[in-house]
Amino acid sequence: MTLLTLRELGVTRRGRTVLQGINLRVGTGEIVGLIGPNGAGKTTLMRAALGLIPPTGHSSLAQLAPRARGRAVAWLPQAREIAWQVDVATLILLGRTPHLATGQKPNATDRAAVDRAIARMDLSAFRDRTATRLSGGEQARVLIARALAQDAPLLMADEPIAGLDLAHQIGTMKRFADLAAEGRSVIVSLHDLGLAARHCTRLVVIDKGRMVADGTPLETLTQTLVRDVFGVDALVQATPDGILFQPRDIVG
Ligand SMILES: Nc1ncnc2c1ncn2[C@@H]1O[C@H](COP(=O)(O)OP(=O)(O)OP(=O)(O)O)[C@@H](O)[C@H]1O
């Protein structure tokens, strides 16, 4: 089953081409890491795929009406502002909105989805706390939980682990693996190439608005690619315990 199809997706902003020629098909059970330097076009790709900015070309998600899109994909943007002075459980319940008709009250299924998301993001101790009074990293986990509660087949997350402590970075990547094991998929932009190499099933490398590599972490994260795209000399090594990625120095 295909959860997302992009064909020749492109974006022009203020007369400048910032994304072009993106072709991508995401099936079930994938953790697709979107990687690339600052300004490469990762956020633009996700927002264009969702139809949040007008793209050229085709995105299967951009065609959908808002409620149908909310059931097809959960979107976790990079900006993490929480505006509502509500408790954590209530905020996470907002993730169920695409499943509720206008005026419909949440039912047992919705509450179970919230409980699952709270457990998955290690937030049981925070469920009754006011969300705006949590630390930045705690708020980030609440927003991930809200996206998980949406129970969509596809999760698109823009730098979701930025600002999380190490254990919660790894924990979040493992939760994404749980989703993939359930047959869902995750598209996640990441700057930590070590975590990307270790936890993603596939990496899509974006550079200057173009896709320059698409494959397994070992196929894509070659020393040459890391040097050419990121300007960094790195050690990339397959070990019995997974891929090790160690950036060593800036090149050039
Ligand atoms: N509203 C806008 N108007 C004009 N240019 C924009 C706009 N938004 C983004 N851009 C440009 O598009 C390019 C891609 O930006 P994008 O945010 O997609 O990069 P990114 O890969 O997500 O970067 P980062 O890792 O820094 O978050 C950048 O050159 C950026 O300056």
UniProtKB/TrEMBL annotation:
Protein name: Iron complex transport system ATP-binding protein
PANTHER family xrefs: HEMIN IMPORT ATP-BINDING PROTEIN HMUV (PTHR42794)
Pfam families with a match to the protein in the record: ABC_tran
UniProt keyword annotation of Translocase present: yes
Function: Part of the ABC transporter complex HmuTUV involved in hemin import. Responsible for energy coupling to the transport system.
Statement: the UniProt record of this protein carries the keyword Signal: no
UniProt entry keywords in alphabetical sequence: ATP-binding, Nucleotide-binding, Translocase, Transport
Domain of life the protein comes from: Bacteria
Organism ancestry: Bacteria, Pseudomonadati, Pseudomonadota, Alphaproteobacteria, Rhodobacterales
Molecular functions (GO terms): ATP binding; ATP hydrolysis activity
Signal peptide feature range: none
InterPro entries reported in the protein's UniProt record: AAA+_ATPase, ABC_transporter-like_ATP-bd, ABC_transporter-like_CS, P-loop_NTPase
Boundaries of every ABC transporter domain copy: 4-233
Organism: Loktanella atrilutea
